[in-house]
Specification:
single chain, 218 residues, mainly beta, 18 strands, 11% helix
């Protein structure tokens, strides 16, 4: 049976609170030749618009989830770990005393909502040659690829969805997954998953999560 692969994403512009991801200076370099870095733990800032925290929280490319949701996924799937996210203090984001009804809805600091974490993929795989990918370069020292574009995959821009082009996308071997259902192309910022993860999340009815079709497992 054909197994598709998917890129999960948290939805923007809905009923749930959203975050901005703040820049954190990297402290660890993985390769001095290509300047590859290990990304430090996320620091987030809540945006205005909602005070309702979903099962998944929009914060750009990283996948942010309620800790209890991540724990459920850990019980059923491999290929990822979790790490905490931080909410740095900022005087303009502290809960006002007394509350003012005229203020826009937002999640205030100190954060008192459900515990959150980042889902970090640990299973890296090489893409098969038939993948419709353009490479910027490949480091001669560590072999890490730098990607120019991932072509033919389903893409989202705002509310507009562009479907995957048949026969194109990202192809990986079943062997390279080593039994994992979460994975990413080597040295990419993508978080990908198999049909099994998508079906599990949809059956659980998790809020504020969608999926883009990106390829297949061979």
């Amino acid at each position: 049976m054909l197994m598709k692969t998917w890129c999960p994403y948290s939805r923007y512009g809905g009923e749930f609170a959203e975050c901005l991801s703040l820049y954190v200076e990297p402290t660890k370099r993985l390769c001095m030749a290509c300047r590859a870095i290990e990304r430090p733990p996320l620091e987030l800032e809540w945006d205005v618009g909602s005070d309702l925290v979903g099962d998944f929280v929009a914060a750009g490319a990283p996948i942010i989830a309620r800790l209890k949701v991540a724990d459920e996924l850990t019980q059923h799937f491999k290929g990822f770990t979790t790490r905490p996210v931080n909410f740095p203090e900022h005087p303009n984001l502290m809960r006002p005393k007394p509350p003012k009804r005229t203020r826009k809805k937002r999640v205030w600091l100190p954060y008192e909502g459900p515990p959150l974490c980042e889902i970090v993929v640990t299973q890296e795989v090489d893409l098969l040659p038939q993948s419709s990918v353009e490479y910027e370069s490949v480091c001669k020292e560590c072999g890490r690829p730098a990607y120019r574009s991932f072509n033919g995959i389903e893409k989202r821009r705002g509310q507009l969805i562009t479907p995957r082009i048949p026969g194109q996308g990202l192809f990986v071997s079943k062997k390279s997954l080593a039994g994992c259902d979460f994975f990413k192309p080597r040295n990419s910022g993508l978080t990908l998953c198999t049909d099994r993860v998508k079906e599990f999340m949809e059956q659980r009815g998790y809020t504020n999560i969608g999926f883009l079709e990106v390829g297949e497992v061979i």
